[in-house]
Amino acid sequence: MSGNMNLTLKIWTQKNAKSKGQFETIKIGGISPDMSFLEMLDTVNEQQMKEGKEGFAFDHDCREGICGMCSLVINGLPHGPDNLITTCQLHMRKFKDGDTIVIEPWRASAFPVIRDCVVDRYSFDRIIQAGGFISVNTGSAPDASAIAVPKDQSERAFDAAACVGCGACVAACKNSSAMLFVAAKVSHLNYLPQGKVEAKRRVLAMVDQMDKEGFGNCSNLYECEAACPKGITVDFIAKMNREYLGATAIYAEKVYGEEM
Amino acid sequence: MILDSAIPSGPIGEKWTRHKFELKLVNPANKRKFSVIVVGTGLAGASAAASLGELGYNVMAFCTQDSARRAHSIAAQGGINAAKNYTNDGDSVYRLFYDTVKGGDFRAREANVHRLAECSNLIIDQCVAQGVPFGRDYGGLLDNRSFGGAQVSRTFYARGQTGQQLLIGAYQAMMRQVAKGSVKMFPRREMLDLVVVDGKARGIVVRNLVTGELESHVADAVCLCTGGYGNVFYLSTNAKGSNVTAAWRAHKKGALFANPCYTQIHPTCIPVTGDHQSKLTLMSESLRNDGRVWVPKKIGDTRSPDQIPEEERFYYLEEKYPSFGNLVPRDVASRNAKTICDKGMGVGQSKLAVYLDFSDAIKRLGASAVSAKYGNLFQMYEKITDENPYKTPMRIFPAVHYTMGGLWVDYNLMSTIPGCFVLGEANFSDHGANRLGASALMQGLADGYFVLPYTIGGYFAGTKLDKVTASAPEFEAAKKENEAHIHKLLNVKGKRTVASIHSELGHIMWENVGMGRNQAGLEKALAEIPALREEFWKNVNVLGGEGSFNQNLEHAGRLADFLEFGELMALDALHRKESCGGHFREESQTEEGEAKRDDENFCYVGAWDYKGVGVKPELTKEPLTFDNVHLVTRSYK
């Protein structure tokens, strides 16, 4: 079943982090509304390659909305014009024949461009390394049912843990803030009894690393929440701020010494 | 060649305990003197890297994605089995062992499976301690469900994203070790070669996917945790980047490949919409707990499903298998869907689909209870198909999902190359010819958290390892060889795109080496695959340069390996003249059309030794004995 949509694409192209990028305009026909957005881009690349051109680079992997690899700003919106999905779950039925679609990478200094629409998000990994874990070595765990976790608390933790680490929140924010990501990660662990032991150290270390990576601050515009494919809400940011405040007052000196 | 599986002696329940005691130990202060390469950061790789780092080994971890957290284990939805018996319904380690051996259709090793069942409970403990938010009931304790044909409720789950939550747990544990310096992380690297020095695995050659540079990394052992090879079918539920390259290159260096024909076709996937299709999306088979599978009784009935009255619906699984009904194992459910569609009874535009209907469950439990269980799956389905499964039945069709075959390993998870360990889906060991639902996550984590950390110590303590550096001739040669391979790919400069050839390979595999296989089809595949491989090397057009980020080149390299591997898969399927598990050989079926196993002739692991491209590999058999679970015919009637 081939389709009949004709589209004009303006795709960001950039050789590497150091070179200057620009938009390239491409016309494409025969697009089916049942295609995913990435399948539309596959079709574009197939056409490009048949013409002897290299095709556009974009990140993708699972193509079912869970790995968090895909990362396109489409017509100004991270993951495009639909709610609660990643780019790979966006379908062409959301567009009309004759549309012009602008496609860009996540833009943030903490996510340098690797090529075209592919960026480097290792800064997120470094934030996790700073404290986004529970310190339990393999083999030292007590029986799984030893600690009862109230269902509402467990569900709240899960709401935060649903984050796929895609970075749409950063791309959506005018300050390139990573507050929603970090808040989700902090909240997931801090809501659980298992995570409480290190709760204060965790929030301090992760926020500290977030700042070091060059992510901006929060202006309370909630663009991150609107862009999040997993429905992570900004009240987790409030929780993180509360935890951070409490931790700064009590623990900062112990953990970090005088400078904080 | 004689394959020594190194299975410890003694009664089945004592083998692992005894083996752990008998394994030589590496003194805690000496562990830092050993370095280990872990390739792949899914459940097996991340759990292994974290655990080895905690023990004090120097670990280097590699993944092709930009972050270790994105490995394809993340996509597993349904759950993870453990023999906790929290539900008081008669589960035990022995029963989980028994069910897994039987579910694998008696083509797995008893000793490995028992160890897996023993580790299952420890995994749940470990994951909960890490903060994995498993489903709980109102008393705050862990909830379980029955899954994939099990008659006890032993499956732990985390909404519809158990894989992601377990992987986040393992990934976070690994990141903790990265911060401590015991694990060094190498993202966006693809393993191209295993380097063997003096007969032992001593390192790898990887391509830095950002710069294009080839890098040599030296270690005292190499662990391949690189997942399965389902993408040989082009369309599968695997991530686009999943591939056989690491395993295949190790195979070419001497690691035997076992049971490559064992493929699992998952029954509940979203049907294909057209030629543009780039991958298939699976929906957890937990859906079959409450969904009922049916097609219209009348062939060519084009009425919308709500217009078809109850008596004109054919609930074929419930009718044919009254005791298991919609919960028959995956291979049985998939094959029946295919048979129904082959008869022309399929639904939807392509007629390659059957209904999975939730209307009864919604009536019985209410829409909100159904939503609590399956909400995210329903949402995913609606996003893809534009149909609301609360109102109209889902359409489902089988898709390639998991590969039980893999590199041959002994009881210590070591391949036939000393020092090269293989974990998770990449090895062949625990699922036999058919994997039960919620067993893959269990195996990946058992291997990484609880098996390898012991057995690798035994290897180090008992092996003399000379000092090796990246300038050793073996590393230089491997680098040169891979450089030449890349040049060759870029210099074909033909007319066809990589994807078009991959799609063609997938078509050959699906038609002839898919759900039902016969001699004629397999022989056809064995003629077509080498021809397509020749076409690839004559007529592919790989664009872009070698010294930069180049996804087309990555894809071409992986396809080149699939074009060699596919032939081995077809050959293995041809030689195995029996039906077993996910391998349904049409010549070997009962009068009722059920799979007919041939224990007299095929009760063995078939392990293949590489002899060159297009040269017939040599088969070595590891006989399988069943001392505890007696060989019986699987029956789900």
Topology readout:
The complex is a heterodimer of chains A (260) and B (637).
Chain A: E1 5-13, E2 22-31, H1 37-50, E3 73-74, E4 77-78, E5 100-104, E6 113-115, E7 118-119, H2 122-131, H3 151-161, H4 168-172, H5 179-190, H6 193-196, H7 199-212, H8 223-227, H9 235-256
Parallel strand pairs in A: 1-5
Antiparallel strand pairs in A: 1-2, 3-4, 3-5, 6-7
Helix pairs in contact in A: 2-7, 3-5, 5-7, 5-9, 7-9
Chain B: H1 15-22, E1 35-39, H2 43-55, E2 58-62, E3 80-81, H3 93-103, H4 110-130, E4 155-156, H5 162-180, E5 183-186, E6 189-197, E7 200-208, E8 214-218, E9 221-224, H6 245-252, E10 257-258, E11 263-269, H7 287-290, E12 292-296, E13 313-314, H8 316-320, H9 330-342, E14 354-357, H10 359-365, H11 367-385, E15 394-403, E16 406-407, E17 420-422, H12 440-461, H13 473-490, H14 498-512, E18 516-517, H15 519-539, H16 551-575, E19 584-585, H17 599-602, E20 604-609, E21 618-623
Parallel strand pairs in B: 1-2, 1-9, 2-5, 9-17, 18-19
Antiparallel strand pairs in B: 3-4, 6-7, 7-8, 10-16, 10-20, 11-15, 12-13, 12-14, 14-15, 20-21
Helix pairs in contact in B: 2-5, 2-12, 3-4, 4-12, 10-11, 14-15, 14-16, 15-16
CATH H level, superfamily name of the domain at 270-401 in chain B = Succinate dehydrogenase/fumarate reductase flavoprotein, catalytic domain
CATH class of the largest domain in chain A: Mainly Alpha
Query: How would you write the strand order of the largest sheet of chain A?
Result: 2-1-5-3-4
Main sheet strand line-up of chain B = 5-2-1-9-17
- Residue fraction in strands of chain B: 15-25%
CATH topology of the domain at 270-401 in chain B: Flavocytochrome C3, Chain A, domain 1
SSE pattern of chain A, N- to C-terminal: EEHEEEEEHHHHHHHH
Total beta strands of chain A: 7
**Oligomeric organization of the protein chains:** heterodimer
Distance between the termini of chain A: 62 Å
Structural class of chain B: alpha/beta
Helix coverage percent of chain A = 25-40%
Largest interface: A-B, 80 and 85 residues
What is the global morphology of chain B? globular
Bulk shape of chain A = elongated
Unreliably modeled segments of chain B: none
CATH class of the domain at 270-401 in chain B: Alpha Beta
Tell me which CATH architecture of the largest domain in chain A applies here.
Orthogonal Bundle
Under CATH, the homologous superfamily of the largest domain in chain A reads Alpha-helical ferredoxin
The CATH architecture of the domain at 270-401 in chain B is Alpha-Beta Complex
Determine the mean pLDDT of chain B.
95
